[in-house]
Amino acid sequence: MPPITILNVAEKPSVARALADVFRQSPGSIDRPMTRGEAAQIFACDNVMFPSVFRQGDGRTIHGPDIPHTMITTSVRGHLASHDFGPQYGWSACTPSALFEAPIQTMYKSDMEPLERMLLQQVRNVQAVVLWLDCDREGEAISDEVREVCLRGSGGRLEGRIYRAKFSTVLTQEIQRALRSLGRVNDAFVQAVQARSEIDLRCGAAFTRFQTLRLQKKFDGFDTGSVVSYGPCQFPTLGFVVERWARIETFVPEDFWFLEMMIRLNEDGSTVPGVVMNDSGGGGGGAQRQRAQQQGRAINLSWRRGRLYDRVLTMALYESCLEAQEAVVTSMTGRPKNKWRPVPLATVELQKRASRYLRIGSESVMTAAEELYNQGYISYPRTETEKFRPEFEHLPLIQSFTGVAGVFGEYATKLLSNNNFQNPRLGQNDDNAHPPITPCKAVEPSTISDQTQRGIYTLVVKHYLACCSRDALGKETQLTLKIASEDFTAKGLMILEKNWLEIYAPWERWSTGQGELPRAEVGSRITPTALLMKDGRTTAPTPISEVELISLMDRNGIGTDATIAQHITTIQERAYVTKDAQQKFLPTKLGIALVEGYNSMGYQLNKPDLRREMEFECNLVASGQKNKGPNYCPYIGKNARMLQSSKCRSPQAR
Fold it and tell me: Domain Topo IA-type catalytic: where (predicted)?
């Protein structure tokens, strides 16, 4: 029987090259010269052995027998098709609210037409198609677009012969596993992406036209060719920045007062005779005070009340403490304390940690991570999963790092000895598509020439090795004293075993405070060395940081793990916000005006509620509980009614 000829379609050229490399490494395979098609490179390899593609399709692993296949491999470049309104719904041809019911056309832009023609030509001579698009919802939608072109090009001959490969890295063993467990395109995921895309197009276009036509003449620097854009995700993202700015602008500082105590203890816990010192430095002779300060170990205690905003009340409590002179030890506790190792790394956490540790913006993080993935350094970087499958083999991966010079090799060797390895913790989230972000190739970071990619790779490796380590162990002590009616406490920590903190240095630390405290006897009386009343003033919050912004977006369902960085970049490109060197955001005059303008009309479009509701509806579609169809999401209706209301009409239309 002649070999089965398969067209393999990847999402990007780098993945197509990686697939071709794996196919040519198959025992007995025969590689053919690469050819350049109209729009992409085309690789060919004969006699690639794996179970017949026609026995597959349900995603279950097939163990044999292996038969020869001819693998034709090429790629697209993301989405093939685009969607827009027809010319009869141009800017001057209809009202913005009409776009909520206008028909949407599917089209291929000029730069994608060569790819479409190439696929139409390639499917004429193949017996099956395997789609190697990224294994997330967006990749599923692109798979559907490629499937539609392939079915059209084959005249329906390939119906039922288009398969979906599930993989998270382009490593040999992962691709070989995918070739034995081919499935189908997840149509529920496709519908969910199409639903979100339609909502974003209708709402984005309608509100962009409305606010551009209404507001562009109100701001300096905007001419008739400028567009004041709106996006269902970018606007709540802008809203978080403006809300923080508003809190800063309306902040009114308040004075507060608090008490501080210092005592001295010998290392055996015995007390050192002290002299109560008030804020004027009085309370005893200078020589006696000096002797007290030179003996024992100083322990600083904080007031359990924290602070008070009433000076008279604070002064009264302070004077009662001075009159009491002696404090009584009411509690002395010591207990083991752990600092837990991190859970496996997902996309949102990668973006937050890269911003915090490396001062790299979220868009740059994802660009660098994608390139590392394409080169086989890390697994697929767009994932929500925070737990490893039980069958994941950690020890061989850690073993590969023992040959790397420097910190990684030393720590990996230590991790594999003395029972130091621990299976990673299980996080809460699992997208059931990709594993957590992990290193796939053990190299010395200095061999990666790009500085941003080098930093991201280092972070991913450190995080993974930390996940496979033991928790840091310490001993916490807490001392509580009562003087008059007031309680004062001190905490200290002694680190017994750093464990995962060793590899995560210098980014992760465990503050020991005052170290392990001497054990004072409960009931003993201590004369404070110092007892002071101090004042302070509340300060305004700082501008929102990128870490905080990503956290708020993730918590409120604004964007996905794959698009959060894109939305943050968009509001910067639209000149709605600026970002400083400390990764903090401030809104521009235009950004403030947009949010406050809608708020003044009673429409809080900057709030995340509408988008959260829409994402919930799309998740129902993705899980198969709801179908994409007419009136599938009340989100569109709410926005349409908003633009049709009298508050949003032009004065001439009222």
Answer: 186-643
The catalytically annotated residue of 163, 377, 380, 504 is 380
Residue 649 has pLDDT above 70, yes or no: no
Do 391 and 453 share a domain, yes or no? yes
Known catalytic membership, residue 380: yes
User: 481 to each of 266, 517, 521, 621, 643, how far by Cα in Å?
Assistant: 16, 13, 11, 59, 63
Which residue segment(s) compose the domain that 440 sits in? 347-468
Three-class SS state of 2 = coil
pLDDT tens for 31-41 read 999 998 788 99
Query: Residues 6 or more apart from 241 whose CB is under 8 A from it?
Result: 543, 544, 549, 571, 576, 577, 585, 586, 587, 591
CA torsion angle 460 462 464 465 (round to 10): 160
| Domain count for the chain | 4
HSE-up (13 A, CA, CB side) for residue 534: 13
* Whether residues 13 and 151 fall in one domain: yes
Give the mean pLDDT of 248-256: 97
Helices first, then strands: H and E counts in the chain = 19, 17
Domain termination site, one of 163, 185, 207: 185
151-155: average pLDDT: 94
CA angle, 229 then 235 then 238, to 5°? 110
Give kind and range of the element (H or E) at residue 47. strand 41-51
